[in-house]
Structures are given as structure tokens and as C-alpha cells.
Amino acid sequence: MTKRKNKYATPIITGILIMVFFIAFQQLSPIRGDAGRLFQGTLSIILRVVVTFWISSLAKQQGRKSLPFVLIGIIIPAITLIIIGIIGDKKEKTVANKT
Known about the structure:
Layout: H1 9-28, H2 33-61, H3 66-75, H4 77-87, H5 90-98
Helix pairs in contact: 1-4, 2-3, 2-4, 3-4
């Protein structure tokens, strides 16, 4: 049995780190009240935009339609990164199934 190297490990790790960061920031944030919510909301929007562009690029590299991943990525960017890292290339799977 050969071990297959996952070339999309970076999105998986990044998705997990984003989730851990936001949970930790929510619990340990020194900024409280309206200022804290404003800062967290701004950070969340910026992160969602950056991650959404990355998700779109990864989906195209994998030979998949990017629109469904982008729509899901806007809502839950960290989980979408993990999913797109796990599913891998569509092209590789179709070639492997034919042999």
C-alpha cells in the first residue's frame, strides 16, 4: 500500500488554524464591547474575502466549478478550505478510475 501525498495540505491546515484563531480570539480578546465587535467584524470580512478568492483559485486548479465553493466559502470559509483540501483533484480521480 502506497501512501499518497496530499498536495492540498495547506488549505486544510489553514482552515483549522482559522477556526482555532477565531475561537481563541472570541474567548481571550482584550477588546470588549462595541469596539471589540467592530474589530472582529472587520477582521472577519477581510478574512472571508481573501479566503474566498483562494477557494476559487483552488477549485479551478482541481478542475471543479468554483461557484458552489465560493458561495459556501462566503458563509463558512474555514470549513470550505478543509473540504476543498480533502477532496483533491477531480482530474486525478477520473484518470485513476479508468485504469
